[in-house]
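Run: sequence + NAP -> complex structure.
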Amino acid sequence: MKKCQKTVLITGASSGMGRSTVIALAKQGFVVYAGSRTPDKLFDIQTEFIRPIKLDITDPQNIEESIGFIDEIDILINNAGYGLVSTVEDVTEKEMFDQFNVNVFGILRVCKAVIPKMRKQESGVIINISSFLGKIGLPLFTFYNASKYAVEGITDSLRYELKDFNIRVHSIMPGFFDTNFARDNLVTNSKTFEGDSAYAEMVSTLAPTIVAQINEGNSTEEVSEMILEIIENVNFPARKTAGDKAKKFIPMKKELSDEDFERRVRAYYDL
Ligand SMILES: NC(=O)c1ccc[n+]([C@@H]2O[C@H](COP(=O)([O-])OP(=O)(O)OC[C@H]3O[C@@H](n4cnc5c(N)ncnc54)[C@H](OP(=O)(O)O)[C@@H]3O)[C@@H](O)[C@H]2O)c1
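>> structure
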């Protein structure tokens, strides 16, 4: 039997963690508005419970138009995001802005549109899909790191801001997960990846290792199950790690000094 009729809005729903969460929540009886730039990619799983909507989180007007008609949103899952791989000296203004426009401002825009609905309902749950790279830096991932550190900050601030309205805010910090993140959606700076770049050696060792670790990463169901747990458990912690790499590195980061942790990461990735 279906458990509930709560309404969920999720961004970046067409692939990876987003798509698997849409399916998992619909199975439990949630009505899921599956937001995507390409909602047709969700037509194959469209049902009474899975409602694909066109959603571009970089466009405030589109956000208003796309979700304005949904009277109540009980759960918001800010999932859309991608990674930029670039050194700081090579990055373009556009690459830098786009990374924050999607991963940071996108979340804030959707929150801005959804929070008034949750406040009126006097309840809600917001789940931000961050990353273990929201607590740990890596070379070539400075912009992605900075964007996910920002997501962690957004989560912390919103928890205070929304508590009195009975709106819970959480973040999930995944390690590496087997999705389209590295297969289709990574953005790479062309200069950084040139053979004669001053960073060529680092690029040639680190980038393929990270891509391989993502593509051989954990299965997205772990994240979907954690999302269900957050929804059901009012006492769920503010943030939690998911996947092997996050479970290995985040506790280590807490236990060691910054310098000792850095030494471990250097040794692990041969940096
Ligand atoms: N895979 C990992 O190892 C990993 C690890 C830690 C954190 N994460 C985070 O997990 C979340 C989900 O990623 P995923 O691994 O499931 O990757 P994915 O399969 O690439 O899915 C990400 C979704 O985000 C949206 N997206 C991607 N690039 C975008 C862009 N340039 N502009 C706007 N939207 C864009 C897309 O949604 P639509 O096309 O449907 O709009 C896409 O379906 C992201 O926030 C990512 O940062 C992933």
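>> summary
The radius of gyration is 19 Å. Residues 7-269 form a domain with the Rossmann fold fold (CATH 3.40.50.720).
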